[in-house]
Amino acid sequence: MRNILAFIIRYNFMLIFILFESLSVVLLVNSMYYQRAVIQNAGNIVTGKFYSSVSNISEYLKLRRTNELLAIENSLLRQMKGMSFLKTDTNSFWVNDTLYRQQYKYIVARVINNTVGKRNNFIMLNKGRRNGIDKDMAVITSSGVVGTVVNASEDFAWVMSVLNKQTKISGRITKNNQLGTVVWNGMDQRYGTLIDIPAHVKIAKGDAIVTSGFSYIFPANIMLGTIQDFRVEQGEHFYVIPFKFSVDFNSLDYVYVVKNLFKKEQETLEKTTEAQGNE
């Protein structure tokens, strides 16, 4: 208390000056419209900038959660699209039969590790068997194909990227439905190669390449890229077609893991048929 009194006594003239100045400003603002408006406007500007800054910081902190929610929503929308369903015979009258049966399920996952500069590149996801992810499932984004799950633990999945010498994906040119195989030559992460297209087929730069749907892993019509060039090597009868990937593999964040709900049934039928043919 003694220190407070000593401070007041020491600076009493300064404190009185500040008090009278404050009263003068208050009286001036209350009595004159123009000055009151100027001061209020200045206060509003400062307050607005403060709240704007707080809002921007808050939006930035919520951005990751927003992206995750959007990815989940996109996954649900994909599952509702016609390409995710298998059309069945409407002349069948089984009680549980419907016109469309869901064939593909989409599971949202986040990329937590990714390489692009190696000859064989892999990706790690933050979800695994606990979330329904297992070996031989497709991995895609809204832009196109990313790779294939090659191993999974309870909480993580290991994905073989399209940027891998072991990757071979059945693709087709949308303009003419010509089937080929997509590979990566290990040189540039932006470009792949489509092979096995006969040299007599008419193609052009800019033609789109998508998945054929002829595997049990990838749904049909998932974007792979667009043709950049094409050539026929001397003595060969097939094109070598460099194309630009639709996916930027260096900026992967959220992806969709695609589960074919009929995969086991399809594989069992194929093996049974092959066994019967070998008898």
Give a written overview of the molecule.
- With 279 residues, the chain is of the alpha+beta class.
- Among the domains are: 84-165 and 252-262, Rod shape-determining protein MreC, domain 1 (Thrombin, subunit H, Beta Barrel); 169-246, Beta Barrel (Thrombin, subunit H).
- Helix content is 33%, strand content 30%.
- The chain contains 4 helices and 15 strands.
- Strand 8 (169-173) and strand 9 form a beta hairpin.
- Helix 2 (12-31) crosses helix 3 (33-80).
- The longest helix is centred in the first third of the chain and has 48 residues, at 33-80.
- The protein is elongated, with a radius of gyration of 32 Å.
- The N and C termini lie far apart (106 Å).
- Residues 86-98 have low confidence and may be disordered.
